[in-house]
Amino acid sequence: MGDKAEQAIMLEFTLQGQDFIRAGEASSEIKQRLKKLGFKPDVVRRAAIVAYESEMNVIIHARKGTLRVEITPRKILIQALDEGPGIADIEQAMQEGFSTAPDMIRELGFGAGMGLPNIKRFADEFKIQSRVGEGTLLEIIIHADKG
Amino acid sequence: MNTMTGYFNFVRLDREKCKGCVNCIKKCPTEAIRVRQGKAEIIEQKCIDCGECIRACPNKAKYVETDSTALLQEYKYRIALPSPSLYGQFRDPINPVRLLTALRDLGFDDAFEVAVGAEVVAAETKRLFQTGKLQGPVISSACPAVVRLIQVRFPELTSRILPLAPPSEVAAHLARYLKARELGIPEQEIGIFYLTPCSAKVTSIKAPVGGIPSFIDGAFSIQQLYPRLSHLVKQVKGVQHPGGYSRASGLGIGFGISGGEQAAVGLENQLVADGIASVIDVLEELEMGHLDGIDYIEARACSGGCVGGILNVVNGHVARARLDKIIREQNRSSLPLHERFPELDRLDYKVPRIHVEPRPMVYLDSNINGAMAKMTAAEKILKKLPGLDCGACGAPNCKALAEDIVLGKAEETNCIFILRERIMTLGMKVYNLAGIKPLTLSLEDLEKEGEE
Q: Is the pLDDT of residue B423 over 60?
């Protein structure tokens, strides 16, 4: 980038639990931005999927939450922080097909237990912290020079 | 071809008729139009030739540049390729054989149905899936506007496009291949002319996207030939066209309406999208990986499929109703092409393959750091704009104007609301200045001024 200051763009979205009408709006906006900025298609796709799955996790499981994105030319940081039930056994939650989503949500086609495994699969760096009864924090980094 | 930009576009503007209104800029799916100096200008890099602006124009100021029929004279043997949607343009349900005969009466030496190409494509697509050479989700390559949309707006999805030439190209290729062998003449003496309902097809013939040259030598719009053709169709006495390879069944003709390709390909998990907005929605879903269970996506830029194409004569719904009848009739009377002509498989004939390259748009800057600086600047400007998306500035919405300003292609005062605000501020300044009392004037002078 030479001697020019490295740019950063911050985005923040407030998410409401069970709001399936607006579900996907935040990640769609993130995808459009990354495309417009000229990130590589694979980077855009991975970031968009990670953002979408994180957004849906909050909407399906939590009361409310925030999706924060920090875009720099080198990397995309995605944070999803929620106030919700938390995850008792993170190792179990990371397994494909494991889900605590109620039937009603599964009937909508969500909660198939692929969210967290997919997030991890598409992320270059992945951190998860959770406290039962309080909430969950996901932190994902996508490196822009990969892919 | 525009030698400056390297892009082809065949949507043209009649500058006399264009009133500089905002109808087309608001309907363009790639935001490729701006009104400048009272006229709608197309940004070639972004245009996909879908024809939505032609549909939206109340002044009929936009049109597609098609070929002149004088081009026919350059070939010894001329073959017409009628698009399936042509069959839906006549009031009385038309027998395709009658139509092929009328095309010969119109001045072509022969006619070959695009629907035959459609059947060949459908059969080959199915075979590629069944032999495991293709895995879903695959997007149909039949609609050229969709293919170009994917190139510019969904570049990563180009790898998902069916690697087979579209039905019109396959029909042209097959017609030339068979005719040259039948007549024993060189292939280049045969001219193939497409009767098309589609603006994007015209472009795809002149500027093919699949890495191989077009097999079609000229394109005429259905509107262009309709007056004479509709007259000739009524004059046909008896059945004169021999049929043979050049005749399709209802399966191929079905490609003219949305859902028809799905019926012909006949895979387990298929999805149909028609209308450019619906297609964009589906491609967004696909890009997010939400369509993993789908094998095949039939996507058409025009609502209702090719019968909704802008170069047709009759309303798309009416044409569809007529085509439905013809399809049922043709399915009753004939078997699909490969069942009727198993020898087609034995010929050394290969369906032409294509490979579509991405053509991503540069939105703000080719350097990401630069693009980010511009996006941040555009964001700041956007906050000052009224958010009405009125289009009076010549851009389709406030966001597009903000980006145009950052790119140096527009100014803040192009927004009439900002302009009005500036004039008001200026007016206030003038008023306040006028209120300042010059020290040299006496009180009596000022009182006199007040009385006046």
A: yes
Residues of A in contact with B377 (CB under 8 A): none
pLDDT score at B450: 67
Q: Are B275 and B106 in contact (CB under 8 A)?
A: no
Which of 3.30.1490.20, 3.40.50.720, 3.90.180.10, 3.30.565.10 would CATH assign to domain A9-143?
A: 3.30.565.10
- CA-based nearest distance B264→chain A, Å: 29
State the smallest CA–CA distance between residue B27 and chain A in angstroms: 19
CA distance to partner chain B, nearest, from residue A14 (Å): 19
Write down the pLDDT at residue A96. 85
Domain residues of chain A, as ranges? 9-143
Write the pLDDT tens digit of every residue in A26-80.
999 999 999 999 999 889 999 999 999 999 999 999 999 999 999 999 999 999 9
A73 to chain B, minimum CA–CA distance in Å? 6
Residue B142: closest CA among B126, B163, B113, B159: B163
User: Touching check for A28 and chain B: CB below 8 Å?
Assistant: yes
Residues in chain B: 452
Q: Is the CB of A38 less than 8 angstroms away from the CB of B366?
A: yes
- pLDDT given for residue A77 in this prediction: 97
Asked if A38 and B363 come within 8 Å (Cβ–Cβ), the reply is yes
Domain parsing of chain B, residue ranges? 11-64, 73-346, 368-434
Kindly list the residues from chain B whose CB atom is less than 8 angstroms away from the CB atom of residue A39. 368
Residues B181-224: pLDDT tens digits? 889 999 999 999 999 999 999 888 888 888 899 999 999 999 99
Residue-wise pLDDT for B139-149, tens only, equals 999 999 999 99
pLDDT score of A1: 44
**Which among B358, B366, B372 has the least Cβ separation from residue A7?**
B372
Note whether A49 contacts B288, CB cutoff 8 Å: yes
Residues of B engaging A, defined by a Cβ cutoff of 8 Å: 155-156, 284, 287-289, 358, 360, 362-369, 371-373, 375-376
Domain B368-434 top-level CATH class: mainly alpha
What whole-number distance in Å separates Cα of residue A122 and Cα of residue A53? 11
Kindly write down the DSSP assignment for every residue of B15-80, as one continuous string.
TTT----SHHHHH-TT--EEEETTEEEE-TTT-----HHHHH-TT--EEE----GGGGGG-SEEEE
Fold of B11-64: Alpha-Beta Plaits (3.30.70)
B362 with A7: Cβ contact below 8 A: no
Phi, psi (rounded to 5 degrees) for B294: -90, 135
Sheet (strand B296-300) strand order:
B138-139, B296-300, B270-274
